[in-house]
Write a structure and sequence with these properties.
homohexamer, 70 residues
Chain lengths: 70, 70, 70, 70, 70, 70
């Protein structure tokens, strides 16, 4: 009966990669807890970087600040 | 005070159908638990089929596998 | 393929009422969009009133303020 | 370790406003509970008005009904 | 930057099993999309069976109906 | 019309602190985007540390590993 929601930023999130995530997390739940893949739902949300914050900044700015300058 | 989130795949999810879902679930909460429609929020997320997995597969592939072959 | 999450405060949220919500919302999705009940998941979260805010106040205080005095 | 999800309708939800929300809510969690901004994630979902219901109606209709007629 | 939410029913959901899910899904995101484990958050919600519906029934009833009688 | 969900671990999450979060985030949305507090809902989920993962570990272990020893 599991339901899994994965939120990621868009880089590299192709249909192929999404299929790998769906397959991988479904297998993980089957292997770890014996969950039935037929009732395991996975929903992937791709979130634009301007809508994701970390360290108090949108992630694009956060990454620039971290790789930061000088 | 209810908050309801409905996630569906895109087929047939027109503005009219969404309005029916909003109306129906709000009435259900009022009828079942006496919840006030004025504080009942409903958010509908339409999720692309490549981002929804079931049975370890994206739903398009899952449907093809089920209706499957031969 | 729908997934529905219903968040409510605890008053009256018995197992019987939850079963009514599960049945009602599953039927609504079948009737409105032809969704298959076998792949319709409903998760109900009961949220303590101290953890739910409305009008900038926890809901208990909000209700007192609304019914308010004088 | 906080995770915050903010759902809003689209009016005025520019990148600048989103950055203000990210900054503001991260500071609020640091000030109130001593949460570390480096592990505070904020995800903002912009939800189309046809997909948000209040009072049993999509919000556009709800607003028209409230400002209502005559 | 990923955020993962896993909802499961309580059977077998021990601290050890939760740690396996956390480790497994974090590795999956690193391997598949190169996501940094240091910013990968996983939240596991254990949902009572009376609060989870499938096929229009609470899951306990659903399982009884499926294993069904003679 | 905003809906805000805040997930935090349990340390220090008293009713008073929750009320501060509810008030603070509601004011933030009013100030930043002009959102009406009367339709701003905030739900706070307190998540046990064994159910929250970061860096591939449950947060208790993660914190021990970080503060870690010599």
């Amino acid at each position: 009966m599991p339901y899994v929601n994965i939120k990621i930023t868009p880089e590299g999130a192709t249909a192929e990669k999404k299929a790998e995530l769906i397959s991988g997390v479904t297998q993980l739940l089957a292997r770890t807890l014996g969950k039935n893949p037929e009732t395991t739902h996975v929903v992937i949300d791709v979130v634009e970087t301007e809508s994701w914050g970390l360290g108090g900044l949108p992630v694009d700015e956060y990454r620039r600040a971290k790789s930061g300058g000088g």
